[in-house]
């Protein structure tokens, strides 16, 4: 891989504002090929993508996704889905209700989605993951007419960037890359990283925030409590 390509991957940032410029079919097919060639556990290939072009559907999805306007306005919006429906058709006795099956599907979905986003950036595009798709997971599934044994995991907006946001700080290697054994949290390095992220949030949005506060904000409350019942309704995580 060229140094230029590495620089692009190392400077990843989420893009939420896009030029009024469509992605041509040739470029879209290149992204699709990157998706198709993603690694897959046991060659199960248990991911499907739904490209949403219908404006009314995009409007509805925007409402389901915390009214994030770019879900509607981005040139492309793709939904990455765990898909074991085809496997159930091929093998009706398939035991798809084990927790490990969903883990396989979720991991494969993440790998495929990242293949697409990385390829998009290498092609001069930008994008952003839409995890808020899971705020109304069941309604999204109904809108997309997803059958049993499928799940909408994450959305992705794609287009040509119309912004150049600052690079968001990432955890230092010492807090996430270990040799041989897991290392407990280094409080000094955490404090240093909290200061780095505090400076970032202050400069970007003039808000009082850091990484530790962000963690607490995200996790010190019920996290999408309706998800489990929908997973089970779709035939997953029953044992």
Could you characterize what this model shows?
The protein folds into 2 domains: 3-165, NADH Oxidase (3-Layer(aba) Sandwich); 168-223, no CATH class. It is 44% helix and 12% strand. It is built from 10 helices and 4 strands; from the N terminus they run ααβααβααβαβααα. Strands 1-2-4-3 form a 4-stranded antiparallel beta sheet, with helices on both faces. The radius of gyration is 19 Å and the shape is globular. The chain starts with a helix and ends in a 6-residue tail after the last helix.
CATH superfamily of the largest domain: NADH Oxidase
Please give the count of helices: 10
Q: How big a fraction of the residues is strand?
A: 5-15%
- Shape call: globular
Low-confidence stretches: none
What is the number of domains? 2
Task: Give descriptors for this structure.
single chain; 239 residues; alpha+beta; NADH Oxidase; 2 domains; four-stranded antiparallel β-sheet; 10 helices; 44% helix; globular; oxidoreductase activity; Nitroreductase A; NADP
Task: Lay out the secondary structure.
Layout: H1 3-10, H2 25-36, E1 47-51, H3 55-64, H4 70-73, E2 76-83, H5 85-90, H6 99-122, E3 126-130, H7 137-143, E4 150-159, H8 187-205, H9 211-219, H10 227-233
Antiparallel strand pairs: 1-2, 2-4, 3-4
Helix pairs in contact: 2-6, 3-7
